[in-house]
Amino acid sequence: MQDRRTRVVVVGGGTAGWMAAAALVRLLPHACTVQLIESAEIGIVGVGEATLPHLRAFLLRLGLDEAAFMRATHATFKLGIEFRDFGKPGDRYLHPFGAFGQPLGGIPFLHYWLRLQAEGEGGSLFDYGVANVMAAAGRFAAPASDPASPLSAYAYAYQFDATRFGPHLRDFAVGQGATRTEGRITGVERHPESGDVAALVLENGARVEGDLFVDCSGFRSLLLGEVLGEDWEDWSHWLPCDRAVALPCESPKGEIEPLTRATAMPSGWRWRIPLQQRVGNGYVYSSAHLSDDAAGDAILAAVDGAPLADPRVLRFRAGRRKRSWSHNVIAVGLASGFLEPLESTSIYLVQAAITQLLELFPIDGVDSGDRDAFNAEIDYEYDRIRDFLILHYHASTRDDSDFWRDVRAQPIPDSLAEKLALFRRAGRLQRYAKGLFFEPSWIAVLIGQGVMPAAWDQRVDAVPFAALDQELKRMRGAIAAPVETVPGHRAALAGLGALA
Ligand code: FAD
């Protein structure tokens, strides 16, 4: 009998390509066949090392074993991102994967805390986050399954060696039936009438036909950008960083910190991502404000271990293709757009696109309604993340370099201006129905960078001050005490059998 499954061709074998191939072949084996083309000669970006908690759901859904994945990719646990020197030099806060405190009588915790702050009481907001307290202590445990436990109100993600993640997924995907073809794509054939992509031609002359093409070719955007000419929406006026210099170094002795760190620098910021055997570092900067050589010198001077390679410069632009799905081509990953890694969002965006693709997978040809729905979802995700990233620069009082003066002076998108105005006035946050970064994330960055609302929810004043003070002290204690019983990060990795 004729095989009527949709022939999917995935272009590119970076993180995006192998995530897409693994998900399609594992979850839609009855609906599609999957062939992936990659070129070792071209290589992959290979620096995406910090992730968000959503990746856990992806691995689980595919049925991948957590400990085996962590051993294969030299992964560590991540409880959040610590931002240093962003609001002003000397500032430090952790944007956790979790909430702060508990609501009382249906009123969000933040409002109680704001009232105590006005009297100089209540302590730091960040003492009410389980993930914050655990990360600061260098400890790690998976969240308790009992929602009544104080150790349940957080999530976790991974930090891993990006050059190992693709191969781990490749072994899995090929084991599930995906085909892998090595070779450089040098030609693309299109249907004369529809303009759809019909086949790819490789350097060795081989021809690969397909029904649906998933463009994971990285920044080059081979099919969506180069062949279909999909327009680019540029966001570099809001997010001017356009380069990074990456530098892995040896791990310092002692505990592995269960967090990613982002430290503001004179012309951008630098990341520090601890893995099992090394630390990933990189300086993300604006080439209008800093030369590549000066950035290389700055990262060499900043790292806290012996360098393991020469500094490597990567170039990019903030923005996205106007549509990620055009004709029968769906771009996933860097081929669709890029937002700087300040909040570790790229692999999340890969996952979001794959989730939509699985849901809207075309069985008998592409339906334009499904394609529009896909593009609307991806736009939504990008726009939300964009605003959240801009916030980190806008909500700063740094005045010590041209870069910081320039980014602070930039007008911000209306969507962000409205959100900020509401928070400043009344400590309230517009709710997002879906996507990334809900209230606790915004609160972490706003309060962490010194943006204090002018007022709090008036209902809070009905509670006697002493009772409130007592209750918040109890909440802090209910986090600090059990965290003391949690193992150190390295012991937690060993306990799970996750050490390579
Ligand atoms: P790539 O890794 O570039 O893969 C492209 C693939 O296409 C390769 O296999 C290549 O061989 C193939 N290819 C291209 N052209 C051809 C051709 N003509 N023929 C055949 N094959 C071809 N993300 C995070 O989530 N967290 C982070 O902390 C993070 N940090 C980052 C830091 C920097 C500086 C940068 C630049 C990115 C970072 N990212 C991060 C993003 C992350 O690296 C990417 O989202 C992720 O690696 C996916 O990349 P990709 O697979 O789309 O592209």
Hetero groups = flavin-adenine dinucleotide
Distance between the termini: 46 Å
CATH topology of the largest domain: FAD/NAD(P)-binding domain
Considering DSSP H and I runs of 4 or more, what fraction of the residues is helical?
Answer: 25-40%
Total domain count: 3
Average pLDDT level: 96
Strand tally: 22
CATH architecture of the largest domain: 3-Layer(bba) Sandwich
The main sheet comes to: 8 strands, mixed
Mass-distribution shape = globular
Give me the secondary-structure topology.
Blueprint: E1 6-11, H1 15-27, E2 32-38, H2 54-62, H3 66-73, E3 76-78, E4 80-84, E5 92-96, H4 109-118, H5 130-136, E6 157-159, H6 162-176, E7 179-182, E8 185-190, E9 197-202, E10 207-209, E11 212-215, H7 222-227, E12 232-234, E13 243-246, E14 249-250, E15 260-265, E16 268-274, E17 278-285, H8 292-302, E18 312-315, E19 319-321, E20 325-326, E21 329-331, E22 337-338, H9 346-359, H10 368-394, H11 402-409, H12 414-426, H13 439-448, H14 465-483, H15 489-496
Parallel strand pairs: 1-2, 1-11, 2-7, 4-15, 11-21
Antiparallel strand pairs: 3-6, 4-5, 8-9, 9-10, 12-19, 13-17, 13-18, 14-17, 15-16, 16-17, 19-22, 20-21
Helix pairs in contact: 1-6, 1-9, 9-10
The structure holds flavin-adenine dinucleotide (FAD).
